[in-house]
Specification:
211 residues, eight-stranded mixed sheet, Rossmann fold, single chain, 8 strands, alpha/beta
Length: 211
């Protein structure tokens, strides 16, 4: 089995051994396979693309084809200890609904996402007047799967809207390496992670008001 890229390794570090895990948008199953084999989790996956589902099944993983926007609502509340959504929330039609569904069905939720407030994205748009092609925006504007181009500060606001609290935050650099920071530093101020980080990983859970 190939070594996980740093972002996925950081997410794996958030998952407790022997727990019940759902990986939403699990891709080819690399992270899910790692968790099953190395942490003994009861791992399940949901993936939109059939070719990725096939790749997961070939790895011996329990993965079904499905859409996070429509299918997460079918899962019972509290059925998973952790739910993972990696580099996908910006491609969903209803990010708030998806986030609330994940918080409902899982005790903890790990989300990684690109930062469209990253300074290189801002600078390219300012100078050239066109949507840039970077690691964050690796598509033309007309063929991108990214529907909601949110910043890290936007996502923090979304977690509040969903009634959640951030218990852990990691910044991603241009090489995908991670650095843990205090969640309260993730603000919309001009300077700070919202400007300087190409992406981030958050571990969130329901707020006290929601039990």
């Amino acid at each position: 089995m190939s070594e996980l890229r740093p972002e996925l390794a950081a997410i794996a570090g958030m998952i407790r051994p022997g727990t019940r895990v759902l990986d939403v948008g699990c891709g080819d199953g690399a992270l899910l396979e790692h968790l099953v084999r190395n942490k003994g989790v009861d791992g399940r996956g949901i993936e939109l693309l059939q070719q990725n589902v096939n790749a997961c099944v070939a790895r011996g993983l329990s993965v079904v084809q499905g859409d996070a926007d429509t299918d997460l609502g079918e899962y019972p509340a509290g059925v998973f200890d952790a739910v993972i959504l990696s580099q996908t929330i910006q491609a969903t039609e209803k990010p708030l609904k998806v986030l609330k569904d994940m918080l409902r069905i899982g005790r903890r939720v790990a989300v990684s996402l690109p930062n469209f407030g990253y300074w290189k994205v801002r600078t390219s748009l300012l100078i050239h007047g066109r949507m840039p092609r970077t690691r964050t925006l690796d598509y033309h504007w007309y063929d991108t799967p990214n529907i909601h181009l949110c910043t890290l500060a936007d996502f923090v606001g979304l977690t509040r809207e969903a009634g959640a609290i951030i218990s852990e935050a990691h910044l991603l650099d241009v090489a995908g390496r991670t650095t843990r920071i205090r969640p309260e530093t993730m603000t919309s101020g001009f300077f700070g992670p919202n400007l300087t980080a190409p992406g981030a990983i958050f571990l969130i859970k329901q707020g006290q008001a929601q039990g």
